[in-house]
């Protein structure tokens, strides 16, 4: 049984990216899913001055969780075309433990937003950045217009988009079994 670590890269208590990442992870078979909440890893804003006092335990806890994963499923919130501050701060702190924060773990990277571009700007940034941080990007998927294409009970409601994500999940399962 694979262990999938899942999170939405947002600190919002109603994060659509957390909902989407959780849904996507549920499509994998024979898996143990652990859903992380970025609010459990809240820390002071990173600076070299603050680092002199040591790396917060929350960064160590996050780094340890990444090490437990057989697969990462992460959906990125887009804030002004980039990572959310909550995720960027966590990444900054955890990278001080090891620049290869994601420890050569395979990852499915996702994004969604209420808009028609579905967080595609941040997803492009993430897919380029992750290999430098020790993440192996297996695939990526952007869900546009979240509120028109997703239902909390049914998941993706647009059949073509649902088919695309299922094909990605199936290809990852075949290559990682």
Automatic annotation (TrEMBL):
One of its GO terms (cellular component) is cytosol. Gene3D superfamilies: 3.40.50.360. Keywords: Oxidoreductase. GO terms for molecular function: FMN binding; oxidoreductase activity. Residues 3-142 form the NADPH-dependent FMN reductase-like domain. It comes from the Bacteria. This is NADPH-dependent FMN reductase. It comes from Flavobacterium indicum (strain DSM 17447 / CIP 109464 / GPTSA100-9). The lineage of its organism: Bacteria, Pseudomonadati, Bacteroidota, Flavobacteriia, Flavobacteriales.
């Amino acid at each position: 049984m694979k262990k999938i670590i899942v999170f939405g890269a947002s600190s919002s208590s109603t994060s659509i990216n957390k909902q989407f990442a959780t849904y996507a992870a549920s499509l994998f078979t024979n898996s143990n899913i652990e859903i992380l909440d970025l609010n459990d890893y809240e820390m002071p804003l990173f600076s070299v001055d603050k680092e002199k006092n040591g790396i917060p335990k929350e960064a160590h806890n996050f780094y340890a969780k990444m090490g437990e994963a057989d697969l990462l499923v992460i959906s990125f919130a887009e804030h002004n075309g980039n990572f959310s501050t909550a995720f960027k701060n966590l990444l900054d702190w955890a990278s001080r433990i090891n620049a290869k924060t994601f420890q050569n773990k395979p990852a499915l990277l996702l994004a969604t937003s209420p808009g028609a571009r579905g967080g595609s700007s941040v997803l492009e940034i993430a897919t380029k950045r992750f290999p430098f941080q020790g993440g192996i990007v297996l695939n990526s998927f952007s869900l546009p217009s979240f509120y028109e294409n997703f239902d909390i009970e049914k998941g993706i409601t647009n059949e073509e988009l649902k088919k695309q994500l299922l094909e990605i999940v199936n290809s990852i399962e075949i290559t990682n079994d």
